[in-house]
Amino acid sequence: MRRIALLLVAVVTLAGVVVSMAPSSGHADGEAAPIFGVKIPPRYRDWRLISVAHEEGNLNDLRAILGNDVAIKAYREGKRPFPDGAIIARLAWSYVPSEENNKAFGRPQSFVAGPPTNGVQFMVKDSRKYASTGGWGFAQFNDGKPADEAVHNTCFSCHERVKDRDFVFTHYAP
User: Fold this and answer.
1) What is the pLDDT along the chain (174 residues), one digit of tens a residue?
2) How many distinct structural domains can be found in the chain?
3) Dist. CA 120–CA 118, nearest whole Å
């Protein structure tokens, strides 16, 4: 009985090591997005949280904005423009009512993240490579695959509206 327990612990430990060595995004070596050539950065889901938002209208989602170490440092120091190497990620989910939470609160008031929506998006700062778009390269991936060129053609024109904030919508929420 003791041998079986030890064998089981060894198998579970080995499986944990194998899983932890895999990239957390699951697509780190995948295709590059059109126009800007951005790929999904490895382990982006381990980045720090910059802020969260609820978008209404056509987007109608809950979103988390994450940043790599370069982006987080720039946010914390209030450094604009962002330095080359900064990467900002946007993850989004539909929001759905939580019946379980609403029962605890005694009334409908709680919403939680539902299925992912609008893919995962990235902004990559490289002032020379992306000089024509304010120093930023843009990418959207749906189910790990780059969105088409038409989607990527809309990125800069939207971000151009916040040129005075180095083309970044999100404020840091410490």
Assistant:
1) 444 333 333 333 333 333 333 333 344 458 999 889 999 999 999 999 999 999 988 888 999 999 999 999 999 999 999 999 999 999 999 989 999 999 999 999 998 999 999 899 999 999 999 999 999 999 999 999 999 998 999 999 999 999 999 999 999 987
2) 1
3) 7
| Residue 55, domain extent | 24-165
Per the omega criterion (within 30 degrees of 0), is the bond before 34 cis?
no
How many Cβ atoms are within 10 Å of 167's Cβ, its own excluded? Answer: 22
B/e letters for 73-94, b = 16+ CB within 10 Å, e = fewer, are: ebbeeeeebbeeebbbbbbbbe
| Model-wide pTM > 0.90 | no
Residue 109 forms part of a structural domain? yes
